[in-house]
TrEMBL record:
Fe(2+) binds at residues 249, 330. It comes from Rhodoplanes tepidamans (Rhodoplanes cryptolactis). This is Ferrochelatase. The gene is hemH. It holds the Pfam family Ferrochelatase. It catalyses: Fe-coproporphyrin III + 2 H(+) = coproporphyrin III + Fe(2+); heme b + 2 H(+) = protoporphyrin IX + Fe(2+).
Amino acid sequence: MNESIRTPGSHETTLAPDAPYGSARPSSGRADAGLRPASSPRPTDHPPVRNGRIGVLIVNLGTPDATDADSVRKYLKEFLSDRRVIEETGLIWKLVLNGIILRTRPAQKGRDYEKIWNTEKNESPLKTITRSQSDLLAAALAGVYDRLVVDWAMRYGNPSIESRLAALQAEGCDRILLVPLYPQYAAATTATVCDEAFRALMRMRWQPTLRVAHPWYDDPVYIDALARSIEDELAKLTFVPEVIIASFHGIPKEYFDKGDPYYCHCAKTHRLLRARLGMDEDRFRLTFQSRFGRAEWLQPYTDMTVKGLAESGVKSLAIVTPGFTSDCLETLEEIAGENAEIFHHAGGERFAAIPCLNDSAPGMEVIRTVVERELKGWVGG
Ligand SMILES: C=CC1=C(C)c2cc3[nH]c(cc4nc(cc5[nH]c(cc1n2)c(C)c5CCC(=O)O)C(CCC(=O)O)=C4C)c(C)c3C=C
Ligand SMILES: [Fe+2]
Ligand SMILES: [Fe+2]
């Protein structure tokens, strides 16, 4: 198991059938005894199966194992071959993916990952933070519930969802709460975590019962945690930003047109957070970042907004990224790096990127609230 696991020790039970399978004592008294042909084989007991524990698996998007082009290519190939992410599956897309994207992007992105890499642990910040969230969640719940095992996985790359579900099952978890770490639902993020988990279950004889956490885009605990963290971070700055942008990862506009609720979830988070911070729409903006490919994505785009604000005379700007549960390439490199540069080039003077909730106390309060709510009926009274 990962380091984060709390092992409840003696609480597991080892399940064996109440009587040897196929026991054919002539008058066993069992209701089905008469149904078994006299000549039926008599296998021995099935192997002991541990059960009775409850698993919590938190899952984030994924990240390459290293910054070299081959590692990034492997990660991007898995990611961009997911039909929940790129719905286009035609020959032209396959040619573009294999002939252009996977030839050029891995080296480029590898250099970007190098800028933010956690050299001490030799892994990306997304991995470091997700592991820490799992460890802290396990510690917070340790004294409250027995029989609980907390673990973490990545949708793409390692540790895989399949490997951690198998590990939880081997630990005796016959009920598992899956927590895709996305406050706002999108098919490209939340649904693909569920797809992957259920694909793993397809290969299991005795499937654990699975629950999936509901997205928490409008949860008062989440909105309050964001607001408190933004207020604290703003108080640390040497300037008061004229404008604050709430930048969410985008999706293609076509996915929204087809019914994905992601835009609505982001818009609601933004509206509630703006109200909680007491700011008007000019001061606290909603934008979408990380556009990929040439199709239209959700608008307004973050980079164009940042440039436009600087060009129109805004000198100080802060960007928050409430859709990311932890800092990653998209916040540390794209926002704190690229967008800071765009702002300064266009005439801006003071720029701040506000950290994500990460494994901070308010951030952990959000994850813990979501988990405890979803565990109701499985634990406690
Ligand atoms: C937070 C929600 C996210 C949504 C929605 C999302 C949609 C989405 N992403 C891509 C393409 C890429 N995203 C990449 C990185 C990345 N994306 C998210 C989150 C969401 N993506 C995170 C947390 C990360 C960072 C991972 C890390 O290691 O730090 C990348 C990889 C980097 C790159 O090559 O630019 C791609 C590609 C699409 C196409 C999409 C919606 C359809
Ligand atoms: Fe993404
Ligand atoms: Fe809607």
